[in-house]
Specification:
about 25% strand; GNAT family N-acetyltransferase; four-stranded mixed beta sheet; acyltransferase; alpha+beta; EC 2.3.1.-; about 120 residues; Aminopeptidase; transferase
Length: about 120
Amino acid sequence: MYSNYFKLFEFLQNSFAKESAGAYDAGNNQLLSEYLSDHSPDGKIIFLAANPDIPIKGLGTRLLNELQKRVQGKEIYLFTDSACTYQFYEKRGFQRQKEKKISLKLPNKKIDLQCMLYSKVIDK
């Protein structure tokens, strides 16, 4: 099920924002390359999101807490940007390791973003 979601997301991203998707990916790849020069992470959070229209408060926190129970002692990382709620990760002990400013060129506008790489060693 989730693999179908990611395929759909990639299709939409590449269909409507080809050039911008490339700039975003290039920025994240640069951050990752720099990060890997002095870190050896055990895993990556690819996507974590909750539907804001569902009245269940704390779902993202519960999902992250469950992950942390399962990967104690491991270092994980994730990508996010200034258009997302990166503060969520900061409040849960993730550290901003790398950042890079990029500009996304969409058909009718330009969006300036700060791409960020966060990581955390999960407490035992």
